[in-house]
Amino acid sequence: MADKLTVGVLGTGIMGAAMARNLVRAGHTVRVWNRTPAKAEPLAADGAQIAGTPAEAVRDADVVLTMLYDGPAVLEVMRKAVQGLRPGTVWAQSTTAGIESVGELAGFAREHRLVFFDAPVLGTREPAEAGQLTILAAGPEQGREAVTPVFDAVGARTLWTGEDGAAGSATRLKLVANSWVLAATNAAGEVLALAQALGVDPQSFLGLIAGGPLDMGYLHAKIALILENRLSPASFAVATAAKDARLIVEAGQQHGVRLDVAAAGADRLARAAAQGHADEDMAAAYYASFD
């Protein structure tokens, strides 16, 4: 497999656009498609080719990369791409899709003889733009020589979790990691809201825990976004976080685990979205503390 590939990127939101730019910078030929064309068009200035349809984006591609909203959206778009797909094409599925959807997407890959990789990523806008994502990947040894240059272009590290993408081991690890991220995000918003309600200077709280075992850089970062009104553009939007939270709660239910904090967090994110904060950074879950 040549070092320089043709990559079809389906989905150019916050993450997909950044990944496409890094693939171009690495010297790959990149064709991009997005349901809302205006979100894909700016990538032309970076050297990407803009496709009018999913099938056009994936035609003759060595690797197809999907970074869409959820599993059903991925399946819908890949069905539209069928005419451009060829047997043996490597498919890196990076959308956080949930365990059930991974099985459905892997089934689509088998039906069309694609080489399927379950490959969600850890990271938000800033690491995505810098090519510093962590890729969680599961898939066969056959095909890794094609997908590795793609992962190297968009990430700083690839953690292989298995050889069967259909088993969803990478997605399972992603859900566990996101459960922690979302719990920490919701906790940051709640502690700030409580401090303000009780007349406590938030900096007093942050100073109290500074340097100790309870301190966390992520907490400082999320509180700063709220206090400094820097919630847009989002690093990871409330609406997407709410979707991931639902997937986490569903995964727990399906495996006999009660995730009370995750369920409450999902409700907070949904409430913040309904209040008009859906497109802001997920730190805006803070606003769900107020009626």
Please give the largest β-sheet: 6 strands, parallel
How big is the Rg? 20 Å
Compute the separation of the termini in Å. 57 Å
Number of helices: 12
What's the count of strands?
9
Q: Average pLDDT across residues? A: 97
**What amount of the residues lies in strands?**
5-15%
The neighbouring-strand order within the major sheet is 3-2-1-4-5-6
Q: What is the H-and-E element order?
A: EHEHEHEHEHEEHEHEHHHHH
Helix content: 40-55%
Assembly type of the chains comes to single chain
Uncertain spans: none
Question: What do these coordinates show?
Answer:
The chain is α/β, with parallel strands linked by helices and 291 residues long. Helices cover 49% and strands 14% of the residues. The protein is built from 12 helices and 9 strands. It has a 6-stranded parallel beta sheet, with helices on both faces. Helix 4 links the parallel strand 4 and strand 5. Helix 8 crosses helix 10 (217-227), helix 8 crosses helix 11 (238-254) and helix 8 packs across helix 12. The protein is globular and about 60 Å long. The N and C termini lie far apart (57 Å). The mean pLDDT is 97.
Brief characterization of the structure:
With 291 residues, the chain is α/β, with parallel strands linked by helices. The protein is built from twelve helices and nine strands.
What are the main properties of this structure?
291 residues, alpha/beta, 12 helices, 9 strands, globular
Give the secondary structure arrangement, pairings included.
Blueprint: E1 6-10, H1 14-25, E2 29-33, H2 37-40, E3 49-50, H3 54-58, E4 63-66, H4 71-80, E5 90-93, H5 99-111, E6 115-118, E7 121-122, H6 125-129, E8 133-138, H7 144-154, E9 155-162, H8 169-197, H9 202-209, H10 217-227, H11 238-254, H12 260-277
Parallel strand pairs: 1-2, 1-4, 2-3, 4-5, 5-6, 8-9
Antiparallel strand pairs: 7-8
